Amino acid sequence: MRTLSARILLGFAALTVAFGAITVMVVRNMAAVEDEIQTVRQGYLPLVPKSNSLLRLQEDVKAYVEEGFTQETNPYKANITLRTTRERRDDSLQKLKVADAAGVSRGAEQLTALVDSLKPIYDELYTALRKGESLDSDAVKTPMRKIVDSERHVYQLATALSNSLDREVNSRMTHLEGREHELRFWTVILGLVSLLVAAMVSVWVVITLRPLRRLGAAARRVAAGDYASRIDEKGPAEVADLAREFNSMARAVEERERELVRSERLAAVGKLSAMITHEIRNPLSAIGLNAELLDDELEGNAEGRALCHAIHHEVDRLTAITEEYLAFGKLPKPKIASEHLNALVDALASFVREDLAAKHVELVVELADTDPIALVDASQLRQCLVNLVRNAAEATAAKGGGRVTMRTRKAGDRAVIEVEDTGVGIAPEVLPRLFDTFFSTKEGGSGLGLALTQQIVKDHGGDLAVESTVGRGTTFTVSIPRG
Q1: DSSP for 304-356?
Q2: Superfamily holding 337-481
Q3: How far is CA 350 from CA 185, 311, 405, 421, 426, in A?
């Protein structure tokens, strides 16, 4: 579940399963309740009134054979009354039997079997009565005694059947009420469970989407000017990818902001250099010339001539700074041409090797076997490398001596020149500001050397990188397009 969509889909799937389970449970229980209701409605409820009717008619039969028959004086009338009472009872029993087509009650079958067993006895009695036998005769009393006992038994069975049906209906209705309460209870419980699942899914979705809120907050911080703002590249795949893209965008915006600040500073330096050229350069020349004239006039005055030499030294220093500002402010666009870097680096090494040796710094040149050819302005690139070599020599001399290495190599479609020293190194907190205009760690430095060097490299479509370890040395890497 690395993706945001999969997590959200899983949450809603869990919610759907929960509601589906509740629906299935409710439908199944309602179907079971419906089956029971159908059984009671179609099986038992029709039998109750018919069993009660049968019981009343059986009670009439029982009462007549026990008491009414003995009080009759006319055999024919007794025969007709007995037949009528018995037929009504038999019709009621037949209706009960038909209503009990599902066979929910065994009592109807027992009653039918018992009543059917009485037919021969009743036929015997009817025959005697049709013949006009006296009611006190044995031909009438003998079957009558059997009929009385049997009808009493039938009455007991009919009573038991009626009571059984009443109890069964009451029991099933009570059971249905219990099922209804149980169904309501479980519906409420599962509904609460579903709400809990829905709440958990909602919380999970909110937690899953929280990185998006952090991303929005970070975007607002970047929009407010906090270009260093970054967010954790964690979370679902889409969010992590979005976070990486956002951090990449923030870094690009931060770099562009730095470039904008650097460009503004360079423009300011250009204006300042023009002002310095106009306001300072000519007076400095006049001061230097007058100092030379004064030095000639003070011949034999050692103290005065020492002061004149000091003035000369400071004028020369100010003139160098002025020239540096002037060069920075009037840096022309490079005139690109294909140049052999091995030859350019070797010539530069020959030019600066003596100066480095005077500072107890050894210069080592490591040239690529295949001479890299790059699209450069040779004079500007030479100025860039001179700045880097001199800085490396100063850092190495500050450590008491060491080695500066210049090397060339190819790297894909780029030509690379490295200037490596074994000097004092650069502190980590200084590295981010190393190429800022007017920033310098050297006493009396103008802070323009590395800024000018980086500008030259950028004008060539290249990159200038630095790696340094305090106490072990520094490596500047110039990477420019190959020709």
Answers
A1: HHHHHHHHHHHHHHHHHHHHHHHHHHTPPPP--EEEEHHHHHHHHHHHHHHHH
A2: Histidine kinase-like ATPase, C-terminal domain (3.30.565.10)
A3: 98, 33, 13, 17, 27
Highest mean pLDDT among 75-79, 320-324, 360-364: 360-364
Q: Out of 78-92, 308-322, 464-478, which region has the weakest mean confidence (pLDDT)?
A: 308-322
Phi and psi at 349, nearest 5°, equal -60, -40
- Calpha distance 109→94 (Å, rounded): 10
Domain spans, the chain: 4-199, 237-329, 337-481
What contacts 135, CB < 8 A, 6 or more positions away?
A: 69, 70, 72, 73, 75, 78, 141
Rounded to a whole number, what is the distance in angstroms from the first to the last CA of the chain?
A: 50
Which H or E run includes 149? helix 138-223
Closest CA to 202 of 65, 439, 383, 7: 7
Average confidence score pLDDT of the chain: 81
Inter-residue contact 58 to 154 (CB < 8 Å): yes
Mean pLDDT of 49-78: 87
pLDDT of res. 235: 65
CA count, 13 A, side-chain hemisphere, 361: 26
**pLDDT digit string, tens, across residues 398-442:** 888 899 999 999 988 899 999 999 998 888 888 877 777 666 666
CA dihedral 239, 245, 247, 249 (to 10 degrees): -140
For the beta sheet containing 414-421, the strands, ordered from the edge strand earlier in sequence to the opposite edge, are 361-366, 402-411, 414-421, 473-481, 463-469
Q: What is the dotted CATH code of the domain comprising 4-199?
A: 1.20.1420
Q: What is the DSSP letter of 431?
A: G
Q: pLDDT tens-digit profile of 151-179?
A: 899 899 889 888 888 888 888 888 888 88
pTM above 0.85, yes or no: no
